[in-house]
Amino acid sequence: MPRGYDALRDVLASGKAPNSPTLLRPHIQNILNDPIPGPPPQPTMPKPVPYNPTRISEPKSVLIPLTPEELESFKIPRHALRMRLNRVDPSLENPNFFPPNMRDKRKRDESDQPRGVKRSRDSGLVAQHYNSRPDVGVTERRDSPIIGLKNFNNWVKSVLIAKFSREAFEASMVHQGRMRGKVLDMGCGKGGDLQKWQKALVKEYVGLDIADVSVQQARGRWSTLKGNRFLAFFAALDCYTEHIERAITPAMLTTPFDVVSMQFCMHYAFDTLAKVRMMFENVTKFLRPGGIFLGTVPNAEYLMGRMSEIPPSAPPEFGNSVYKIRFEHHLGAQIPTYGHRYWFFLRDAVEDVPEYVVHWQPFVALAKEYGLNIIYKREFGEVFADEREHPEYGPLLRRMKVVNADGVSDVDEEQWEAANIYVAFAFRKR
Length: 430
Prior knowledge:
Radius of gyration: 35 Å
CATH class of the domain at 120-298 and 358-429: Alpha Beta
Function: Responsible for methylating the 5'-cap structure of mRNAs.
EC number: 2.1.1.56
Shape: globular
Order of helices and strands: HHHHHHHEEEHEHEEHEHEEEEHEHHHE
CATH topology of the domain at 120-298 and 358-429: Rossmann fold
Largest sheet: 7 strands, mixed
CATH architecture of the domain at 120-298 and 358-429: 3-Layer(aba) Sandwich
Helix content: 25-40%
Strand order of the largest sheet: 5-4-3-6-7-13-12
Pfam families: mRNA_G-N7_MeTrfase (PF03291)
Number of helices: 15
Organism: Sphaerobolus stellatus (strain SS14)
Keywords: Methyltransferase, mRNA capping, mRNA processing, RNA-binding, S-adenosyl-L-methionine, Transferase
CATH superfamily of the domain at 120-298 and 358-429: Vaccinia Virus protein VP39
């Protein structure tokens, strides 16, 4: 035992200190003589009272349960940077490979933009316009005063997609059964071309658009597709001022795109050369060699031809009851290559928004810098003349209600004039 332990034991036993008759202090003696107390008693838990509320006042709000879709969306962080930190191993065979996209809450500062590429006020007007457009049902679309024009434009896009995507999909690295090919739809809008891509048997689809409300509507439209539903990812992004990597995860970009599509939207980039270059970077960076870039765009030759017919004393505008194009100035000696703005109105579709002329030769020359060679250019009227007797595209005119069983069309003369503002094009990447 430790030295001194016996002396301490004797003191505790006798109540006296060594070599001293003095007794220990009374309170110490009492502690030594008292029995060791037991553990404290356990507190008793009150019995739970059954939940039985009684409402006294009228309810001022009603809480609606979250839908399964809403619950699923909350499983994904809203901040893009947090999404990248998630440790996942996405698989192309897993439908969750393309998760619903959630944009940053913070608006991007101008200082965040690439040098020389900043969103203009016109971009905001365009996004606001398309965000405010309601997503009408099938019945209301059929009652549109320009239903003939809409059906014809959709037929042209269907021909363009079928004509060039099949060849590109045949050489695709993305395939599963009959479904093959990967598409980037820049300016996807409300998803009006989703069924066209479904009929082309695409396997993977990425849709980007500047209007976030339209993107939500496109995602909802995709979720209701019947039959073979391809994998799809949607995001709101200005593809003329931001790199697509900001919205698309690296895992989704490991396999290149076979086709990039831009339908009725490319002209918005021609505000500045910097925006056009950003557009071409986004088109070509992840498009494989041999891949196709296709789209539809206003015909600059037609626009300039109509403007040249207007006398200086008349307003710089033309059109009819279906459409109207209003330039800010008459044609002068110097015509700008970029930023040549006009205002466009299309009945029941576009409410006087700013657009830009796509001067064709500068466009083709710049495309070559990015490895794109032009392989197709047709006015919409020429597409009709070329393909109306085609064994597949001819019957499609009836199925898409461009003409009825008797060959009669809802496309009147004024709608036909509006249709021929546009050209269809296709490039192949070297």
